[in-house]
Write a structure and sequence with these properties.
heterodimer, A: 280 residues, mainly alpha, two-stranded antiparallel sheet, 12 helices, 2 strands, 69% helix, 3% strand, globular, B: 307 residues, alpha/beta, Rossmann fold, 15 strands, 36% helix, elongated
Chain lengths: 280, 307
């Protein structure tokens, strides 16, 4: 199994398109952070103006932590799109290139090949999210320095996190972000098992994501009872570690939903893959 | 045939909707066979080969390789099988060596020495480190054969292995197949629409049409069966015709051909006719059998189409 995983990792990480997501992050994140540095915190000054009327703000509140936190908003749509590039290509890409015929005529069960591929998808997703974490935090702190993290929560609530607490909260936030992105990858992987080109799974995954997000946000009473069952309802999980106190119950519920969606998606993909006739 | 078959299909069938692509197919391939698998386009050859290599799940029946059921004992059944299914496709962004390493890993790993051996065997040793996307079709075809040989399998399944090759490339592949069969004692299943290719290398064959098996057996036996036609050329032509008329009991039919006379007769009467022609001072220039595989193939498949 280790050998199979190594093969799948090689196939994925020696492919140029695997690095497309990394390249985009490598361009966008420095661009945003340098722009913010040049702006000199003007946008924060505006945001904090109302607070400054009632409180005396001291220290460096426009700092690397705050900018890193803002960049995590890319976890709503942008990062899911980028992880689905690779997850959606994992099975469909073999069909497109005709290489199913090369690998599925060997004395290795389809289940083992499937598991090696899914492991690769999970690993890619984790590496990609961690890449975003290291780049965005590292560069932001380097450019803008550190300080306390001042956040506005929903309902106008303000949270000020002392500098000493911020790093581990970011670590937790990115850990949970990995879980939510693995769910997105699993859905892309599921769609990848059906089709013979990689575009379909990417479009289908984004379709599911956006539809669920709309249904989650739509203020309609009929949806009240079901919206909490959509995985998109919990996509804000990365914000939870920045609450004070942290709502562990909601985090646990979110993780259960992510696990549930991932298991169903992967089981579905497995069933399709096992029964698939290779006609390409 | 007392030996156990290396490949056996039992009532094998595949249905897509209401259409049977392959139906009730019983094939037997024995150790040492170069087994020609023939059929017109759409006859079900590729579907059969895909079922034999576990790419397609049969609707009915089963495939047995080395006595093991592909359905229940897949990994063991495929351990000694290598093959190309239709066009050879690879990971174009990787080198030939890396592609073969990937294939080797699926057999539990093969030493680097073996990878270079098979590349040398197919004439790609010098280009082994090049990316496959830079390969010509012919080179990919050779690499396809290299991957089929990588695990040193007992059974090699080659689906259209000379497709898209130039005459020199086709000759080389044909020689390689003969070498593998005669020197390396491999069993080879060769599917091709090039009948002369099969005729040159195959020892046994099967013809399928519309998904159903029409004939199966040793190539020579199948070609011997039925009517035997020879083209007799010689001069003077009038005397040649007269001799054939005199020996009407030995020949079944005579018809003029472009360069002589086309004669239908039993194979065992050929020497007597030849002797009679020589005795009558006909300057014989040729007695050429016209019972080619192509004619045989057409007689089988056209009869099937008519019926």
């Amino acid at each position: 199994m280790v050998r199979l995983i190594f093969v799948e990792l090689q196939k994925t990480f020696l492919k140029k398109r695997t690095y497309l997501g990394f390249l985009i992050v490598l361009i966008i994140v420095p661009l945003i952070e340098v722009a913010m540095k040049l702006e000199g915190g003007r946008f924060v000054t505006n945001a904090f103006r109302s607070v400054a009327r009632d409180f005396v703000l001291v220290g460096n509140l426009f700092n690397g932590w705050l900018v890193s936190y803002q960049i995590m908003n890319s976890l709503w749509v942008h990062i899911p799109l980028l992880v689905s590039f690779v997850a959606g290509d994992q099975l469909a890409g073999e069909a497109t290139s005709g290489t199913y015929r090369l690998i599925l005529t060997r004395p290795v069960s389809r289940t083992r090949i499937f598991l090696a591929k899914y492991f690769t998808v999970v690993l890619y997703t984790v590496v990609f999210v961690l890449f975003l974490a290291v780049l965005s935090i590292g560069l932001a702190v380097l450019l803008l320095g550190r300080g306390d993290l001042l956040l506005f929560a929903r309902g106008g609530q303000i949270t000020i996190l002392p500098e000493g607490e911020v790093l581990w909260r970011f670590a937790l936030a990115y850990l949970f972000a990995c879980c939510s992105m693995i769910t997105v990858s699993s859905i892309a992987f599921f769609f990848s098992s059906f089709v013979e080109n990689a575009i379909g799974p990417i479009v289908a995954t984004m379709g599911v994501l956006i539809t669920f997000m709309v249904l989650t946000a739509l203020p309609v009473e009929v949806l009240e009872s079901v919206r909490t069952h959509f995985f998109t309802y919990y996509l804000d999980i990365w914000q939870r570690p920045f609450e004070d106190p942290i709502s562990w119950e909601r985090i646990a519920t979110a993780l259960l939903y992510f696990a549930g969606y991932s298991i169903v998606a992967v089981a579905g993909a497995w069933a399709v893959f096992l029964r698939k006739d290779i006609l390409s | 045939m007392s030996e156990h078959p290396i490949l056996e299909t039992r009532s094998l069938g595949k249905r897509y909707g209401s259409r049977w692509a392959v139906r009730d197919l019983n094939l037997l391939v024995y150790p040492g066979d170069v087994f020609g698998f023939l059929g017109p386009n759409g006859a079900g050859k590729s579907t059969t080969i895909r079922m034999a290599l576990s790419l397609i799940r049969p609707t009915t029946g089963e495939v047995r390789l080395f006595g093991r059921s592909l359905r229940s004992d897949r990994s063991a059944a495929l351990r000694s099988v290598g093959g190309i299914v239709e066009r050879p496709d690879f990971y174009g962004y990787l080198s030939a060596v890396k592609n073969l390493e990937i294939v080797g890993a699926l057999y539990g790993g093969v030493p680097a020495r073996r990878i270079w051996e098979v590349l040398e065997l197919v004439g790609l040793k010098e280009r082994g480190n090049d990316r496959v996307k830079a390969y010509s079709h012919g080179m990919k075809q050779r690499l396809g054969i290299a991957q089929a040989l990588l695990s040193d399998p007992e059974l090699i399944v080659l689906d259209e292995p000379t497709s898209g090759l130039d005459p020199q490339g086709m000759k080389e592949i044909r020689e390689l197949i003969t070498h593998l069969a005669r020197e390396k004692k491999k069993t080879i299943i060769l599917s091709s629409h090039l009948l002369n290719e099969i005729e040159m290398v195959a020892t046994r064959m099967a013809i399928i049409n519309k998904g159903e098996l029409k004939v199966q057996g040793a190539v020579q036996d199948l070609l011997k069966s039925g009517e035997y036609r020879v083209l007799i050329t010689g001069e003077p032509l009038a005397k040649l015709k007269s001799v054939l008329r005199r020996h009407r009991r030995l020949v079944k039919a005579v018809e003029p051909a472009e360069t002589g006379m086309m004669v239908t007769m039993d194979r065992e009467h050929v020497p007597a006719i030849a002797a009679a022609l020589v005795r009558a001072n006909v300057r014989l220039s040729g007695i050429i059998p016209r019972r080619s595989l192509e004619e045989y193939f057409l007689s089988i498949t056209e009869n099937a189409t008519e019926s």
